[in-house]
Amino acid sequence: MSKHIALLMGGWSPEREVSLSSGRECVKALADHGYRVTAIDVGRDLPALLRGLDPRPDAIFNALHGVGGEDGTIQALFEMLAIPYTHSGVLASALAMHKPTAKMLFRAAGLPVAEDVVAAADELARCDPLPAPFVVKPVNQGSSVGVRIVRVGDNSWREEVLGWRFGRQIMVERFIPGRELTVAVIGERALGVCEIVPRGSFYDYTAKYAEGGSAHLVPAPIPPRIYERALDIALRAHRCLGCRGVSRADLRYDDTPEGGGRLYLLEVNTQPGMTPTSLVPDIARHAGIGFDELVVWIVENAACEG
């Protein structure tokens, strides 16, 4: 009998639409390969979710993104139910999603990260916490939700930050010039490095998900030494947080004359997007792993940690 997979998508975070898109692609891939798939649009109704998981599936494919689905919250439910699930476990998911905590661990592991300050909105509205340019971002969102680059002479952000709606704390990080890189990790293997070239001023939500919003250059056209270093940083970050399955590390490569060719680790995404414009499928494809093969690998490596 074919395996029964419950695929969870949607959720209530700002990344809901991205999750639905990821979910639809993965449902099709699994169904095409003979799995029995129950797609569940997850909301804040726990009894409804539990009914959706009855009869008990063989595994859960977690295609949720953002708060509630990627931060250890729903992973804890899977552990309580003892149903194998895809991607990282409770602790790794929570650590990766909370950027200040993840960066603290990265620093302790000797991984290169940018200087940052975490403060409340009213504090940040009074003065610039770092010399401009700097990046303002939520401490626990993905997909560049809420991210803002503040340039020299831009004071409008202080009023904007008073209307902040992404939690009580805000991360302000030194802006790293140069190029946007991302690395896919599958299991214990860093698959490859992709350079992202956004059509707009930076790699924001639109650049990530709108058709034609950015170009993905795989393999990244960077010096071999930098390429290997990026692979090493991504795999070390994956291990540092205790990730499993597939993850994606986002980096900046400062190739400016002042930058010295340094790499900076920005964050690790424990549940990368699986949409038609997503990065991990692009990198996997270049490594000889088709989209369907990638989805099957993910679900066949579902596990519980308890």
In short:
This protein has eleven helices and twelve strands.
| Helix vs. strand class | alpha+beta
* CATH architectural category of the largest domain: 2-Layer Sandwich
Number of domains: 3
What is the makeup of the main sheet?
5 strands, antiparallel
The average pLDDT score comes to 92
Number of helical regions: 11
**Annotation, overall tally of beta strands:** 12
**H/E topology pattern:** EHEHEHHHEHEEHEEEHEHEEHH
Helix content: 25-40%
Strand order in the sheet with the most strands: 10-9-8-11-12
Overall 3D form: globular
Distance between the termini: 27 Å
Look at the structure and give the CATH class of the largest domain: Alpha Beta
Proportion of residues in extended strands: 15-25%
Give the C-alpha Rg.
19 Å
Stated plainly, the CATH topology of the largest domain is called: D-amino Acid Aminotransferase, Chain A, domain 1
The CATH superfamily of the largest domain is: ATP-grasp fold, B domain
- The stretches of 5 or more residues where confidence is low (pLDDT under 50) are none
